[in-house]
Amino acid sequence: MKKTYIAALAATIGLASALGTAHAAGYPDQPITLVVPYSAGGGADNAARIIAQGMSEVAGQSVVIENKGGASGAIGASYVARAKPDGYTVLYDASAFAINPALRKLPYDVKKDFVPVSQAISVPNILVAAPGSAFNNLPDFITAARANPGRYTFASYGPGSLAQMAAELLKKDAGIDVVHVPYKGGAPAIVDVMGGQVDVYFANAASSLNYVSGGKLKALAVSSAKRMPELPKVATVGEAGIKDFDVSEWNGFFLPAGSDPAVVAKLQDLVQKALARPDTREKLGKLGLTAVGSSAADFAKFVDAEQVRWAEVVKANNISVN
């Protein structure tokens, strides 16, 4: 009886393994749902639609965008965390994925409930001010802020956003005290910075570069480690004296925990091939976005480092979203 049970169990395990291998070999053989946990028309959504088109053409299968916005991405992420781990429900999240755990009580565990697949894109932020601002560069702003604690303000497109966190990191590293003014989106934040109602804003390059080029915003610094090719005369925050400052917004692909490693590898390959397409890269480039297409292992390390960094900033600056 015992031998019969063991034989039956072994056969079941063998069959499951064979089915899993067959599933991975044929992946994707049905449409993929790409869950974007933000509203339609936003930065992440626009990038996701461009990449999804490239993925569809590479795979010969539809990649359908499903927007599930709310709670800084937590609603959509929670939905994917509970989804069947078969590779057909995929999360396309942004920098908030790594920031949320330090600020919010979440209905999921970012480390245990997801498998990172690939970083899709990266885009630096530009520290901008009104055209008539007295500040011409970041050292000007830091000098004034140090001399007048609590007098100056910085905008963000919402509490816990990367725009806030980049400014909070600058506050910590530069030893300045400036006041956060959160908005319900990037558009109203930019409008008030243009008008001088708020002093500075770490604006996403994709949404602010045209305003800078058109003279409607003044660029004080860029947040990336290297200067932007589009703004060769604008120094980085690091060049302005804030050592090791390197902040970029990012988007990436995640699968639910328990996904077959072979399926993870297949999806990683699909994303990389889509991002390598000249038409995909050109469309992303027009939005100021740089295609990345990292490996699952490299993306996992990157996300872990992001979580550690923002948790430290939240703790050091005593940040709360309540």
UniProtKB/TrEMBL annotation:
UniProt feature coiled coil, ranges: none
Give the signal peptide as a residue range, or say none if absent.
1-24
Extract the InterPro entries matched here: BUG, Bug_dom1
Transmembrane regions: none
Q: Which organism is it from?
A: Achromobacter spanius
Determine if Signal is one of this entry's keywords: yes
Determine the domain of life of the protein's source. Answer: Bacteria
**Keyword flag Hydrolase:** no
- What protein family is recorded? Belongs to the UPF0065 (bug) family.
SUPFAM superfamilies (alphabetical): Periplasmic binding protein-like II
Alphabetized, the UniProt keywords read: Signal
Please state what the protein is called.
Tripartite tricarboxylate transporter substrate binding protein
